[in-house]
Amino acid sequence: MNKVRTVSDTKQNFYTHHTRPINSIYRRVVEELMVEMHLLSVNVNFGYDPIYGLGVASSYERFMSSYKPEADRVSIFEALCRAVETDPQQYHQDAATLLGLAEKISLDQLLNWTSSLGSYDGAQPLYNALNAIASPERKFKYSRLFAIGLYALIEKISPATAQDHKKLNEVLQSLGEGLRLPIDKLQKDLELYQGNLEKMEQAKRVLQDALEADRKKRLKRALEKTQGAESSENAQGA
Question: pTM of the full predicted structure?
Answer without folding.
Answer: 0.85
